[in-house]
């Protein structure tokens, strides 16, 4: 892989990781010049893996006829040590995601405050206040997995009680029909989106999220379903589809997801390596 291509990919996808598609608040952590001036550290496997992913993101965006700056890469670091996150941070990346609340609140204070944190796991109502504590994760930018009115209402109430700025959220849609997956049925996504928009003033509805099937054989259908859901939601809420995000695509299918229209991909093991689930918290 040529160094010039890798650096171009890092530039494009880094900017994408900081991109603020409305209503996401602008970030203040653009160190693009520093990243471009820094030499590549290919001896570090995680850094090389990050650069490879960013190049693939750029290529997928080009195949889709869209700008790489439209795609945010969330580096998903569940079950990984802070030292690995620090390596990815030192390479210039600023957008990270976690699945488990306790692991999230343990890790975040150990890392710099300019990280854009996404919570992407299933959120239980009794964990909301822990997650939103300003002492734990003051730079929490997005909660991607809102799939029912109860969680939305609790998030809204806790955000208000803590005096936080409105929190960006995505509605999680179960596009694969698997009982093991979280997410609202596609038929209910408009109603939930309307509830958040009308009754949760402390939440900023930013888009929709889905998790594809584990063997990646049905993801085109899953992705098309989410695209259709976005059209329905935006029509009902009189919102522009260009300003409403789609979070779809993980390590095994993020390129297909980008080609289908994803603006937010969640990449974990392809960057950080295989996970040891025995360490799950």
Automatic annotation (TrEMBL):
InterPro entries assigned to the protein according to its UniProt record, in alphabetical order: Ala_racemase_N, PLP-binding_barrel, PyrdxlP_homeostasis
SUPFAM superfamilies recorded: PLP-binding barrel
NCBIfam families: YggS family pyridoxal phosphate-dependent enzyme
Name of the protein in question: Pyridoxal phosphate homeostasis protein
N6-(pyridoxal phosphate)lysine sites (modified residues): 78
PROSITE patterns in alphabetical order: UPF0001 (PS01211)
Span of domain Alanine racemase N-terminal: 57-275
């Amino acid at each position: 892989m040529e160094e010039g291509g890798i650096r171009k990919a890092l530039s494009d996808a880094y900017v994408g990781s900081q991109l603020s598609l409305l209503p996401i608040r602008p970030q203040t952590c653009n160190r693009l010049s520093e990243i471009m001036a820094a030499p590549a550290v290919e001896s570090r496997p995680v850094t090389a893996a990050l650069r490879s992913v960013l190049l693939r993101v750029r290529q997928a965006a080009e195949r889709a006829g869209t700008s790489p700056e439209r795609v945010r890469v969330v580096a998903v670091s569940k079950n990984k040590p802070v030292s690995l996150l620090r390596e990815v941070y030192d390479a210039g990346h600023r957008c990270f995601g976690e699945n488990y609340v306790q692991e999230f609140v343990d890790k975040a204070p150990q890392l710099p405050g300019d990280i854009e944190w996404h919570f992407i796991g299933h959120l239980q109502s009794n964990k909301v206040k822990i997650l939103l504590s300003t002492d734990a994760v003051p730079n929490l930018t997005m909660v991607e997995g809102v799939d029912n009115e109860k969680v939305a209402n609790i998030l809204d109430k806790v955000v208000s009680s803590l005096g936080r700025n409105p929190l960006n959220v995505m509605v999680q849609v179960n596009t694969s029909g698997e009982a093991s997956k979280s997410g609202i049925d596609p038929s209910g996504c408009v109603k939930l989106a309307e509830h958040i928009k009308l009754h949760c003033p402390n939440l900023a509805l930013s888009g929709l999220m889905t998790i594809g099937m584990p063997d990646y054989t049905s993801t085109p259908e899953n992705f098309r379903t989410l695209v259709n859901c976005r059209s329905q939601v935006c029509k009902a809420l009189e919102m522009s589809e260009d300003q409403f995000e789609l979070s779809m695509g993980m390590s095994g299918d993020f390129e297909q997801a980008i080609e289908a229209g994803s603006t937010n991909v969640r990449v974990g093991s392809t960057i950080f390596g295989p996970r040891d689930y025995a360490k799950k918290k």
